[in-house]
Amino acid sequence: xxxxxxSRSTTPLPSWRAPVxxxxxxxxxxxxxxxxxxxxxxxxxALANGPSTIRLPLHSRDTGLMVEALRSLGxxxxxxxxxxxxxxxxxxxxxxxxxxxxxxGGHGLRIDCGLAGTVMRFIPPLAALATGRVTIDGDExxxxxxxxxxxxxxxxxxxxxxxxxxxxxxxxxxxAGAVRGGAITIDASQSSQFVSGLLLxxxxxDEGLVLRHAGERLPSTPHIDMTVDALRxxxxxxxxxxxxxxxxxxxxxxxxxVVIEPDLSNAAPFAAAALVxxxxxxxxxxxxxxxxxxxxxxxxxxxxGATVARDGDDLVVDGGVGVRGGATLxxxxxxxxxxxxxxxxxxxxxxxxxxxxxxxxIGHLRGHETDRLAALAADVNGLVADGSTAxxxxxxGLRIDPRPLRGAPWAAYEDHRMATAGAxxxxxxxxxxxxxxxxTAKTLPQFPELxxxxxxxxxxx
Length: 461
Hints:
By secondary structure, this protein is of the alpha/beta class. Helix content is 26%, strand content 22%. It has helices at residues 35-46, 61-72, 117-127, 148-156, 193-201, 221-233, 268-277, 297-300, 343-351, 372-383, 416-426, 447-456, and strands at residues 16-17, 25-29, 52-55, 76-84, 87-93, 109-112, 131-137, 161-162, 171-176, 182-186, 209-213, 238-242, 245-248, 258-259, 279-283, 307-311, 314-318, 333-335, 357-360, 391-394, 397-400, 409-410, 433-434. Helix 11 links the parallel strand 22 and strand 23 (433-434). Residues 1-11 have low confidence and may be disordered.
């Protein structure tokens, strides 16, 4: 087993004791907006032919980093005065994009990507349209995330990039105010974000873009569908003549007012909680049609025995008596190549099953906020009561052989989905101490409060 990256063991933080469910749930959850949709719409609004309004936006670390990156390039982003339950709407006003003059250190404008994959993969093609020097950088942990494909893409588009040659941040380039575009080939095997980042800015390239993926696999294709849909909704012509090829025609990106859907991937721990604690969890305003991979929960959770039904605009997950009440969950073999971001929550369910499970199609998760395969194996195995191995890493996934569990520390590794996976297991395993629940602020700052409210609905004392 590999050692997971991003451990914070050298910087002790107050741990968060995952609350145990005292009874069957009867929860009603309204989630903030989708990070994936929000950051795509911010980029498109910044490049549009007029102002756009983003309603029910997500206000989180990842979206905040995107807002600040765009502002630093000259884009106007202001609150409208209208506010939803989780913060104000935003008005985005495009501007002539401007980088920085070379400083004494030669870096010009430094854009902080934090640990946000969408920022580090979406902003460089956009910033290449600016005039001036731009340096792309982020958290120390982000410097271990794969960026070689983004760098190679910029070079193929005629952008002069200065980097250390290791395919990671930081790297620097000087924009000339335009990008030629044309036909390029990339390997996006490590992340679909490499494709989306290029497609989003491609309408503003002089020749548009014909993009071909040449790798062995292409993970999380629904995220690319989301990008294409967002482009087409703004009047951009996008063709896909064959699988793995996208042709974005040059032209204007229409200004548009958009409403951001709730984040369905962030719904995963709340929906899974019904199977663990028992009872029902209602997720408010579940979209009838969506490109979010979290929608796959509707078909995945019944495989473990949940009843999933729509009730008006909501999705209701009924877990029966749940693991807490004595229900058994079956072992399953799942291919999650469509939606690997659901894997941490589903691995938590598989850990509580009565038989072995194999979850594959998730090898690319090694390059996320942390190596999620190694992190999940380390954390779950740390809970095994007799010290044996419950989770084994595979080349493209994990094998889970459930074992009796007991309370123990759970490392988040600066990864929001690792933190929420620990919370799921903590519903029935007393003493799961998540070392950094604050990392959920990456996409869901309200997680601790929403989770506490969820668990309290099961307190029948």
